Amino acid sequence: MFSPHHQSILARVKIYTRAGDDGSTGLLGPGRVKKSDPRVEAYGSVDELNATLGVARSLDAGGWVSAELATIQTRLFSLGAELAATSTAPLAGLERIAETDVTALEHEIDRMEKDLPPLKNFILPAGHVLAAQLHLARTVCRRAERRVVALAEGATVEPRLVHYLNRLADLLFVMARWCNHRAGVAETEWRAR
Length: 193
Hints:
Layout (H helix, E strand, L loop, with lengths): L3 H9 L11 E3 L5 E3 L3 H22 L6 H19 L14 H15 L15 H24 L6 H25 L10
Antiparallel strand pairs: 1-2
């Protein structure tokens, strides 16, 4: 994922530097910003999403979606790096998110939906433990998407990054339903009282 140059830099990075004790953080490129900066909020939410997918993978005892989630985690790392970069120079050698990645998510959605009954009502985010975690990941994904859209209001953000997060949230919803279906756990429909 990273060039040998980037790997050698990462090998020398200490976990703590004390540089952020003043509430600032460095970006990929020159300069520091407050940890509350919209750019940090955006890539921090993507990082949180990545961690929730790691939990989902740890719950996937049957290996139903682990390979797909591992690929997505790798792509999210690249997406987060792109959000953290102040220029394209630090991204040299990094495989960046492309529209083909969005298409790959759409293919996964189509593949899984073939096994599912059509939705007739809203469903509650619950069921099998893996499905419930995927529903949680979906909500974190939607927040990350909102943070990236907010960042785009004041900074240049490639639309393909928003496309990817938007489609990923759709996939996580379908994936949660698919895992419930595979586990034989019935979905609970939401009923207005």
